[in-house]
Design brief:
The chain is mainly beta and 323 residues long. It has one helix and 26 strands. Helices cover 3% and strands 41% of the residues. Strand 17 and strand 18 form a beta hairpin.
């Protein structure tokens, strides 16, 4: 996910694991020299963007969901030069320059991020004038109030420093067409009115889920473009309900293998063919590569460098002793 400021609007690019990524823009512009609250709420493959507590913009990731297992650094306020080109390619961002302004109180999953424990680049200084003398524990400082800077508290908090717990986390909730239901002292969920759905009850129309009546034993339900439900089985299982163990087999793959070197993302210049070993050996060992093929391939990286490396991939699968 990438968040940027483009022509005064907040732009959010979201890739749930299927290329290409999608993007939404805020209706409001926030390049007016004032402090603004940008809130992102994600639910499954849905992203909701809200500015200053206003009505959210909603984006659905309708593509096939993928499980993302890789880890990457979190950049706030800009990116190093050596990762800029990769970010433009992966998320189709439009603004490659660093943010010029003040970022105050960044929360991720209700947890305040401590910038003093991060690696700061030249030009980044702590504090936001004239808010340096006013600390808002659970809120944002507004620097241009009539009587000096004041704290604008998060839902559920009050007091001049936002350090007093309020009566309910539903104060200032974002449920558009629904009722706020407190979950704990800090969070809530939205119970939608009839005819609306979504994490913030902002999407109109009855939500029909064909997967509700389909129980996949060893897999998960997927909805096709035509709205039909089917089971997508885990490795080693087959059948309409993913309840049958499949025999060990090799599934052909032809792709560009990728590796990461430092902050640079590198991939082969030509596609490589191999087989992925999947299935069960019915207690006779493990499904693995019986024959491996090595080849030298050229990698090109997002920072402009290239190198040649030997890649080893399976060309035949079968049952063997588990290692």
């Amino acid at each position: 996910m990438a968040v940027e400021l483009y022509q005064g609007h907040v732009r959010v690019s979201y890739d749930p694991g299927s290329y290409p990524s999608s993007a939404i823009y805020s209706a409001e512009t926030i390049n007016d020299g004032q402090f603004h609250t940008v809130e992102l709420v994600t639910f499954e493959q849905t992203v909701n963007l809200s500015i200053d507590g206003g009505s959210p913009m909603t984006m659905d990731g309708f593509g096939k969901p993928h499980t993302l297992t890789s880890e990457a650094p979190l950049y706030v306020g800009g990116m190093p030069v050596d990762v800029n080109s990769a970010a433009f390619r992966l998320w189709q961002i439009l603004n490659g320059t660093s943010f010029h302004g003040c970022i105050r109180n960044l929360y991720i999953n209700h947890e305040l991020q401590d910038f003093t424990k991060t690696q700061m680049k030249p030009g980044v200084v702590p504090g936001c004038e004239p808010c340096r003398k006013l600390y808002c524990l659970h809120g944002l400082c507004q620097p241009d109030a009539a009587h000096g800077p004041v704290c604008h508290c998060e839902p559920g908090w009050a007091g001049p420093h936002c350090d007093q717990q309020g009566p309910s986390p539903c104060q200032g909730h974002k449920c558009v067409h629904g009722d706020c239901v407190p979950l704990d002292a800090l969070s809530y969920s939205c119970q939608c009115h009839d005819g609306y759905h979504g994490a913030l009850c902002s999407q109109q129309g009855e939500l029909y889920n064909p997967c509700k009546s389909l129980h996949c034993g060893h897999g998960h339900c997927q909805i096709s473009d035509r709205g039909e439900a089917a089971c997508e089985c885990q490795s080693g299982y087959t059948g309409q309900l993913c309840d049958q163990e499949s025999a060990c087999r090799g599934e052909p793959v032809r792709d560009h293998p990728q590796v990461q070197r430092g902050y640079a993302i590198c991939q082969t210049t030509r596609p490589v063919s191999w087989v992925e070993c999947r299935g069960s050996c019915q207690g006779q060992g493990c499904c693995t590569g019986l024959r491996l093929k090595r080849r030298k391939v050229t990698f090109e990286c997002s920072d402009g460098s290239s190198f040649v490396e030997e890649v080893e991939k399976a060309s035949k699968c079968g049952c063997a002793r588990c290692m």
